[in-house]
Specification:
The protein is α+β, with helices and mostly antiparallel strands. It contains eight helices and twelve strands. A hairpin with a 2-residue loop joins strand 8 (213-219) and strand 9.
Amino acid sequence: MNKFLKILRDSDRGRAYRAYAGICEDHIPSKGTFSYFKAKLGESLYNKIFHVLVEIFHHLQMITFNILAHDGTLFPTRARYKGCTWFSDKCSCMDVHDIVFRVKRQVMYRLNNLNKVNLNKAFMIKCDCPFVPEGKIMKKTPKMEVLSMRLDFINGKPSENQINTARLFGVKEELDKHGMVINVLRSNLFEINPCQGNARFSCPKIPKDTDARIGVRRDPQNANRKQKIFGYNLVVSTSVELDLKLELPVAATNIAGNAEEGKKIITNTEQIRAHHDCQTKIDIADAKYDTIENYNCLRDNGSIPIID
């Protein structure tokens, strides 16, 4: 997109693009505009536009649909993987009980043992993950960080946040006696009930992209090793044109990186039949697609399946 925008802004090279798109040279869209527009289109409308382009190539006889090859490719998401493999939408809003009591207990222990504890070391409030899959054998239940705090001596006048934090956890008077304050280093809380002592928080291990998952493929640099990709699996059906020596995409389905790829050959086949009047003679796929359902679907459509 960055390379395309450079061309689009070029007065000579971008003239044709601007003319077809109906935009003037003084109002070139930004990268964010394109991202927003892509999200606004949605998958359904995006597929319709894609198949209009495929139909144009079909009319030009550059695509015949005689031989279709099906395969998936993993690609990473822009979101960073944070270490949890079974996250869900529920992880963004979880309850934690007795948070006020637990923080107060930690603070009072440090105030009563100033000679023993290391004040430079932060203390954390954690809770067990409630979403561990059933049957998952683990040595220890995963912990989620709710708060990370540290006690510091007052340097000047305490800030309003420091005062409110001490009041919230009911330790202001004790902290004032020792001339100390609470500094919150990290907080995943977004709602707290000081009367009941309960709170709600978002798990710090949940990524921004909750639809992506970890998929495994062979490392392109070393075929003996496996490579993990946090992202998606794009299952593409291409029309193999022997005369033109081309392979052009005619259907695509995007799934999570760990989703079952094998059944998406049926999805792509139905997608092609819904948009194009064509007859496929041969369908080629690797061993991931070796299922009875795929054979039945392809043979019902009059095609010969060649599957590893």
